[in-house]
Amino acid sequence: MSSSNPALENRVLESYVLGGWHKPRSADGRMLTSAVTGEPVAILADHGLDMASVRRYAIDTAGPELRAMTFHERAAILRSLGKYLMERKDELYPVSTATGATRSDSWFDIDGGIGVLLSYSSKARRELPDSTVLIDGEIESLARDGSFLGAHIGTSRTGVAVQINAFNFPCWGMLEKFAPAFLAGVPTIAKPASPTAYLTEALTRLIVESGLLPAGSLQVICGGTGDLLDQLDGQDSVAFTGSASTAALLRAHPTIIDEAVRFTAEADSLNCAILGAGAVPGSATFAGFVAEVVNEMTTKAGQKCTAIRRILVPETHREATIEALQAALADVVVGDPADKATTMGALAGIDQRAEVRDAVERLKTSATVITDHCDFAGVDPERGAFMAPTLLQATDRRADAIHQVEAFGPVSTVIGYDSPAEAVELAALGRGSLVASVFTDDPAEAATLTVALGSHHGRIQVVDESSLESHTGHGAPLPNLVHGGPGRAGGGEELGGMRAVKHHLQISAVQASPAAMTAITGEYQAGAPRNDTKGHPFRLYFDDLEIGDSIVTDSRTVTLDDIERFAELTGDNFYAHMDDEAAKASPIFEGRVAHGYLVVSAAAGLFVDPDPGPVLANYGLDRLRFAKPTYPGDTLTVTLTCKRKTLRAGAGYGEVAWDTQVVNQNGEVAAAYDVLTIVATREQPS
Ligand code: NAP
């Protein structure tokens, strides 16, 4: 093991708090050792931090600065940070090796974690407004005449997000929680788990060196949290990842209860993979199932909260599955994670291995061992925390131990079932899991199992022959999908896209007039004052356009000839446009009607300003509804109003959404929608 990396020089780990690196008062503390060689790597000592000051620093220093930024400005920082870390990630790999991780394990943790920053950044720019306020859902009219509206808005909470992480993902674990909190404008206090805190410290050093984060937006405590939880109030939150027992302890903390501190947990769970009857031995899907189980047993040496702990197989396929698993496990190379030939590294430490061995003993009360031996390639399995992949077979398929004892290592148990209903029942004995997989080539079986598994699982991955190559992996949480699960899995919903960001916002119901609602949300709401005194708004550059800038167009009467020519041009001869008798016979129309797309096209003809100008392109429509049929002879007028602006920083343009109302001669809305355009800024990139 190279000790050229400062993270591995057996020094006392420091915390990054109060705007600087904080050295513990004494070097006496817990020795952290390499999972591979057992040699000392770092020391965790009592840091004697004043937790009240750490929290205050986040709230007073970072809070106001973060809240003043828009979601897009925060997203841009995450993107820059992600790119910065990607360029320097190689520095983290040797440190990660000391945790027992192979190169691909480290990729999962390091690249995966940095990838979360980038994913959140791009999702935020697509799905969140360039504003400090989120409109959550549709705005509703609370008065017949539209003069009073109701909306849900999300604003940044003013506390801190305390994030307590597990040892198995020292990088990803911190980044997956930090990204949504930061996007929401809430500062983070992160606490890595002790055994691998040296890797999180190394990652934090890179983040600090980047200089990209506003002061106080990320503080990292290496060591215990002291009385931090006692300091929290109802604006703060705690997100915990770790064992179900620690989750239960923290959830019951008096301050968390008394102050109604938002608390979420991603805890351990005994996830299952189910082989459906529709994936018969010998099929590609059966082979894919076996490969996935082995992958989950051996990636991170099975130290993944999402790993497959229970392998549910039809009783008729049990023997064949065991044979196939034994054969595949025989090919696993357990050894030095730095060695390219190694396919499974070490557990995070000797203590962790002792816990896993103890759990295996408890599993053996209701299971027999199928395999628990291997050759260790060039390592001393006693000095390093190495362990053979261990496959068991349940002797009592309903025994508590099988469904309740989490062996947090390369351990999994085969359990036979007799019917899909029994498979679901056995899965539910885990009392709530992060994830289940279903492997079957029968879509009906997939549907039956998935719907029934839903109540007890946060995520369900269904694999058939067509997705064997493309599926994203049983054990891989994705930033755009929920990670968390009910019951024993903790009840959390980390990741999950904007759901995770909203967790750090306060969602408030707001009732107000259209004018007030426009000012509050920063988006034009129908009924608010418009400004049509600046000429055609398509002649205005992005910089000069203001929310509410508007134009009321000339009118156009739609004729039967228009309808027939539009039908001929497009080939859309739907009866409602072409057959008067059939149209009259329908319960909807009084006779032939104009195509909805004709109405939209005619509207464009009314509002478009033809000459080249700041409006560069139209890239779509949102929320299009045809509210009233348009009959031949109806006269249409369009009101187009600047609704929302989103700058694409540095691109030379921004996106502008236009509230579009097409009304007929009676003042009835024939069509309403948002036109989406790209509008140039005055300044163009050179
Ligand atoms: P753990 O022992 O429960 O510890 C988790 C975290 O809690 C660590 O940072 C730990 O710090 C901290 N902690 C423990 N007691 C605390 C207290 N009284 N106050 C504040 N913090 C406290 O779990 P672990 O051994 O690190 O991780 C393994 C477990 O995590 C497994 O059961 C696994 O299934 C689960 N896990 C779940 C997920 C998920 O997303 N659901 C992800 C990864 C792991 P110290 O290390 O300093 O004690």
Describe the structure.
The structure is a single chain. This protein is of the alpha/beta class. It folds into three domains: 6-267, 3-Layer(aba) Sandwich (Aldehyde Dehydrogenase, Chain A, domain 1); 271-476, Aldehyde Dehydrogenase, Chain A, domain 2; 530-680, Thiol Ester Dehydrase, Chain A (Roll), CATH 3.10.129.10. 32% of the residues lie in helices and 24% in strands. It is built from 20 helices and 30 strands. The strands form eight sheets. It has a seven-stranded mixed sheet, with helices on both faces. A five-stranded parallel sheet has the order 11-10-9-12-13, with helices on both faces. A five-stranded antiparallel sheet has the order 26-28-29-30-27, with helices on one face. It binds NADP nicotinamide-adenine-dinucleotide phosphate. Residues 164-168, 191, 193-194, 225, 241-243, 246, 249-250, 266-268, 305, 406, 408, 434 line the site of NADP nicotinamide-adenine-dinucleotide phosphate.
